[in-house]
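BUG: 3D viewer hangs when loading the predicted structure for this chain

Environment: internal workstation, default settings.
Expected: structure renders.
Actual: progress bar stalls at 90%.

Input used:
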Amino acid sequence: MNIELRHLRYFVAVAEDLHFGKAANRLGISQPPLSQQILALEREIGARLFERSNRRVELTNAGENFLKEAKEVLERVDAAAIRAERIHRGQVGELRVGFFGSAPFVEEFQKLVFDFRAEHSDVDLILEEMPTYQQVDAILDGRLDLGFVRPLQPKPESIQSVEISREKLMVVMRKDHPLAARQGDLSVADLADEPMVLYASSIGSGLYQKIVDLCRDSGFAPNVAQAANATPTMMGLVAAGMGISILPESLKRLPLDGLKFVPLREPKAQTAVWLAKRWDDRSSLVRHLFQRGSRLKPKSSTGSEPAEGSERKKRARKPR
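Structure tokens produced before the viewer hung:
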């Protein structure tokens, strides 16, 4: 049948007013074309929808049933249009976001997630914990839309990222450790003979590689006494005397008695958090969260703009 939505809207208007003149006025058209369209609709259906006389207009039995169905169709079309518009604006849908284990302790992570959920209450935000390199694989193959990751070296060309946070790296030790008695900060070289508790290299933590690079720059390889897969586990092992560790400053918020955090003095003893996505992702939801991350202004530990890992100046340029 060649029935258009305008036919349904015309019919519903007449059925509600039971007056062609009033319905025409409400629809913003003249009465003769409205009458013609109703007649065309009746011919298309093969049934009279109205009983007409000089004094009144009434719905037939067929018209009463058709009115119910027509309203449902129009309501569904209107709802579909509204939903499509909200999807286009990034107001509904599903967003799958990865994060490394200690990301929830980073203020910028907390702010982005909280604000996004407050503004997009109809969006199903799915958070999944996984190490940085696993997140990158998941983003590239479409299992994740975005990820909160540590800096990647090298970074795949298909990944676009923006730095949202930067913080000091600190030595974590028992309060009764000999190094804890020193005043001020420590140098990475001071840790050359110390057994360390670090992330297991197999889980692909960006922080693990950062620590290895810092030690190498200071002329030694880290003495890994114990590997762990989770940050609380590492801190518990340090508290148990298995060695020292190097962790981001934000983890001082974890309430674990008996530990001391001492900053490292090397300028490179910092770690960043990136928000990453695929360069070719066109999702409105992904774009909204990524742009929010781009508007954050992380500072380095010296108070200046971050010197490494940031893509603020080149994020609009896709690599060749």
